[in-house]
């Protein structure tokens, strides 16, 4: 499906609505009030999703002055983000370039999202590790201030080691699964030999014990997967410092297509402004690769930007679609 319209017509808003209603959050911002139109008391998105004989109806409501809430088939969910358990949606927006050009935190967050999609049983590992880490850091600060004994740190150190090892293992498995399809896609898109390397080792109790004095002095845990990184490169050339913006864009697309190849079923794929900086050959390669995905939505300012015939064309004008 191709959404066509002038800049500012509302194409990205439509994609954002699809992501919000299937994932429970915006791909653009985590500040929900930014999703509410000026001068209104709130907003809502509701979809009818057909999968063979099954029909699902996700709905997300964002009041102007309250937390968002979601229902699925009329049943209230514990959180809007719970929708991710029922729907798989992948998105490309220009902001996603942060996965390559941004700092390590963006790549860790990306990798943890991949883990949750590829290994649903381990989808909470990053949150559980983060919670244990926060508790250890709090214990370190209490000892630093003389409010607690060092014995209070040990239980949280054990949790950080155990959960950290599991998280590193899951991340490494995700990277190992991504490597081949990522390299295949970078080659097809003319980027070269794409490589992925997970940078970081699993923690041991000895590692934390050796750093205990400096951790207490600083009040934070200075080792662990919360500081690891993912190296994304063209052969030996790291793309973060040495890749052009066009190459970084191709790398993000190659990662997206690699993940799709690993999923058990086709996701909803949202591609916002993906064609504007690609030459005609790369547009065609991308179009051919996404044509095998059951449902893809692409935005463009002109119909001619897509080198294949879309199943549907939606014209967007002043926030209205037809």
TrEMBL record:
RecF/RecN/SMC N-terminal domain span: 3-318
Subcellular localization: Cytoplasm
The membrane spanning regions, by residue number, are none
Q: Which SUPFAM superfamilies match?
A: P-loop containing nucleoside triphosphate hydrolases (SSF52540)
The GO cellular component terms are: cytoplasm
PROSITE patterns in the record: RECF_2 (PS00618)
Enumerate the GO terms in the molecular function aspect.
ATP binding; single-stranded DNA binding
Q: What is its main location?
A: cytoplasm
Keywords linked to the UniProt accession: ATP-binding, Cytoplasm, DNA replication, DNA-binding, Nucleotide-binding
Task: Give a GO biological-process term.
Answer: double-strand break repair
Q: Which PANTHER family match?
A: DNA REPLICATION AND REPAIR PROTEIN RECF
Q: Which family does it belong to?
A: Belongs to the RecF family.
Task: Name it.
Answer: DNA replication and repair protein RecF
Q: Which organism is it from?
A: freshwater metagenome
